[in-house]
Specification:
By secondary structure, this protein is an alpha/beta fold. It contains 22 helices and 14 strands. Strands 2-3-1-4-5 form a 5-stranded mixed beta sheet. Strands 11-10-14-12-13 form a 5-stranded mixed beta sheet, with helices on both faces. Strands 8-7-6-9 form a 4-stranded parallel beta sheet, with helices on both faces. Helix 9 packs across helix 12 and helix 11 crosses helix 12. The structure holds iron/sulfur cluster. The site of iron/sulfur cluster has 15 residues, from helix 20 and helix 22.
Length: 542
Amino acid sequence: FLRYGDRFQRSLAAAINMLRSSDTVPAEIARSFGLPAAAVAGPASFFADFSAPRGRRHIRVCGAAACFAATGGRHVAEVEEALGVGAGNRSMDGAVSVQEVRCLGYCFSGPAALDGETACAGADLAAQLQGLAPRRTPPVPVHNDSPVPVVTAGLLGASEPWSTWPNIVASGTSEDVLRQVDAARLSGRGGAGFRVGTKWRAALAHPAARVVVANGDEGDPGSFVDRLLMERDPHRVLEGLALACFAVRAENAVVFVRSEYPQAFARMQEAVLEAQASGHLGTDIQGSCFSLEIDVVEGAGSYISGEETALLSGLEGLRAVPRPRPPYPTEHGLHGRPTVVNNVETLGAIPWIMQHGGAAYSAMGTPDEVGTVVACLSERFLRPGAYEVEIGTPFRRLVEDLGGGLRDGATLRALQIGGPLGGFIGPEDLDVPFSDATLSRYGAALGHAGVVAFDDTLAGEDVLRNLWDFAVAESCGQCSPCRVGAWRGRALVDRPGGPGDRGERDQVLRSMAVGSLCAFGRRVPAAVRSLARVYRLDGWLP
Ligand code: SF4
């Protein structure tokens, strides 16, 4: 993303690229590019991909919710033992290193690992990594043809991509696209749920050259729809992105893909080249005087860089920490330009909306939350996978009819919805609809629509420990209520309950909820409370 910055930005971007591929220490890299040491040391110490020790063979093992639910977390220790290297370390001879990460997008078949860029998954994960069992990397099961009718907006590949773009760019107007997206009442699927048309119009209100960023940093453990779309249907994502750019008259766009998704990154790069070759992207597309150039940029291992302002900081070569708002990215975003950030799943819905009309989209769902969403069911289900359903579909239908209940006749104990910052519901709550408004009554949120099942073999304290581990590992550390609160909360899980503990827990959760800068720190307390409600961990209730 070099061309948008000044000389400092270009040097910084080149230096960060060098961090990916070189063992040279950050200070030397900085010197070679004429940069202050801190400019490179900051990102080098922030992103896991730069700071984790690397051997010639580097293995990333997932310890997030769905993989944890599959084994109770045992698989991480099994891999460490099998390879003779602890997580976060490199062997003495530099041959192998192991890193625990939080989500690789294989939640439907965990536990999972990436061996270099090759995925493997399954209960015998350690044996697979040792070469004692055949490698298994099952494709994502997609269920929009379930025996139970699933209403679909075609997000999961029901129509040819690039079928609307040529006509729109040649003879349509940006207002045509805006009008349909407004009529669709499409809201962002990344978790924040902001109305897409409103965001686009906010960017249009600022005259400087605009940018659109497709956010493929699907960090929410339990969700894998963005990986699915980018790997299987990258042209649909690109068409949605092109339509968004046309609507806001942006001639530059970025697809940001997290480094835990190497295949998605490669597919998006290929797809951009294919789209350029077929004339869908480039200069003066279809003789329209509209030009569009798309860069595909890889992340470097950080959950918080999925937050839109943190994402922009990361794209500028800085530590990917959230920025205070206002100003909003639509006014002052990437390199100060008005910037629209839309999630990949959100963009994937736009071609369908243009083809069928916004009214058809808004006719689905509930009166307040319209359209479809791709629910991702985790490995514990009999039929795990990605299900595109209308918002408002009852959980019972998802869990029992579509997911088939739990595998091996296991008993459902809890569902984590929307990732670690979403929340939990119990088996007695299955008749509630899959929607943000309803979930908020349970202290939960739809988030990015991951549905991770926990059976009754895991204790509530263990699930809670995994949640706090996530908070400790992924808090960016910028503000103290979240940074310190995460550590204090984690310590309190293991402390035997004493008379003052309940008050201390309350204090930690309250200070995180009211004092944190971004949604990460503000949402952790609600997730902890909702888990405590479902597992009856009274010491964590208000
Ligand atoms: Fe970083 Fe947490 Fe503060 Fe967000 S709330 S800025 S993740 S420390």
